[in-house]
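ARCHIVE CARD
CATEGORY: sequence design from structure
SOURCE FIELD: tokenized fold
FIELD CONTENT:
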């Protein structure tokens, strides 16, 4: 049985093929795309302000979500904007997620070492088992626990919407999950350094803890930049390595939904349609980046472009966010996000103590 959602409007989505063949389709998405682009550029400009960059590095992606959400609540959005907004949210996002491959190489993965990979693997696996337990114990629906777990375990808001490309959840559940992981990730950015200072957590343990447990790259940087350069470097690499788990995680979600009978998989066409091909693009770009087929200068420019694409798609997500619908998701969902955050923080700290509690020459 094919699973659909009244909020996803799949039948009204403009495909890339339509854009190539139909100039009218291009005109229909331009107004919304321009609005998302303006918000993305604004988010990037704000994120580069010294007061934010030096003391509160939230990043362009997070700011774009906030700007998009504020715009939706306070400024009327015409129906002419909707096709472009939805195109940015559904299609441009996939390019942005694939482009994360420009920020990762095999050398980065090797740099975290066996213990770092074991830490990431154990933390991500534990997060999904805990989400499964919450799904059974609380009235959360089928998709919400996996959305929050993916954002918590992998890379925040980008991972939530990447997971939704497989899950096809309701828009308000996606928006709620993004808001939840952004909120609790920001809490971690402020609380982790305070806990490290009060508890006297050694730099090796703290770098591993922050890199494995905080959601967004910008939040990891904010939580470690004033602790130690070595903690900052190791935590950032460890965090980027978690992004490499996006491919197996989305394949896991695909298999899970197939087993639960929520997707039609009786022929090759349906399997090809549902498979998250953009994640294969991500893996291909990691390989390209690893073998240095692209010059370092161009790679940096492509990383900046990818940040803008992600900011554009996150601005679209914000514009798709109706606070009334998000709040209607309920108290149980908020508690689920809270308990997942607590679990990841404690589990990550415990793993970091066990794996990095003795002398580690890499930090």
């Amino acid at each position: 049985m094919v699973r659909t959602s009244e909020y996803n409007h799949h039948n009204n989505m403009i495909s890339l093929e339509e854009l190539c063949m139909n100039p009218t389709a291009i005109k229909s998405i331009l107004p919304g795309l321009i609005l998302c682009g303006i918000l993305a550029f604004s988010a990037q400009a704000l994120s580069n302000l010294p007061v934010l960059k030096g003391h509160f590095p939230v990043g362009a992606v997070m700011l774009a979500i906030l700007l998009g959400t504020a715009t939706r609540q306070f400024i009327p959005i015409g129906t002419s904007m909707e096709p472009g907004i939805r195109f940015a949210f559904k299609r441009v996002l996939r390019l942005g997620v694939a482009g994360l491959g420009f920020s990762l190489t095999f050398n980065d993965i090797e740099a975290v070492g066996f213990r770092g990979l074991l830490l990431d693997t154990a933390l991500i696996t534990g997060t999904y088992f805990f989400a499964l337990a919450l799904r059974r114990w609380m009235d959360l629906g089928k998709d919400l626990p996996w959305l929050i777990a993916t954002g918590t375990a992998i890379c925040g808001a980008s991972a939530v919407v990447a997971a939704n490309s497989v899950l096809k959840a309701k828009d308000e559940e996606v928006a709620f999950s993004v808001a939840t992981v952004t909120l609790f990730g920001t809490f971690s950015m402020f609380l982790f350094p305070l806990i490290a200072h009060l508890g006297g957590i050694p730099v090796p343990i703290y770098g591993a803890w922050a890199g494995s447990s905080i959601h967004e790259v910008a939040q990891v940087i904010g939580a470690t930049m004033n602790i130690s350069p070595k903690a900052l470097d190791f935590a950032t690499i460890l965090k980027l390595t978690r992004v490499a788990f996006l491919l197996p995680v989305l394949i896991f979600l695909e298999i899970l939904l197939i087993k639960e009978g929520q997707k039609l998989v009786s022929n090759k066409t349906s399997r090809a349609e549902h498979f998250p091909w953009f994640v294969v693009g991500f893996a291909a770009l990691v390989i390209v980046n690893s073998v240095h087929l692209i010059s370092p200068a161009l790679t940096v420019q492509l990383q900046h472009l990818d940040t803008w694409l992600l900011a554009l798609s996150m601005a679209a997500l914000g514009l798709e966010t109706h606070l009334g619908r998000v709040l209607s998701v309920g108290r149980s969902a908020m508690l689920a996000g809270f308990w997942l955050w607590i679990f990841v923080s404690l589990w990550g700290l415990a793993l970091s103590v066990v794996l990095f509690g003795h002398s580690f020459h890499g930090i």
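CARD ANNOTATION: Confidence is low (pLDDT under 50) at residues 1-11, 264-271, 359-363. Residues 23-356 form one domain.
SHELF: design records, drawer C
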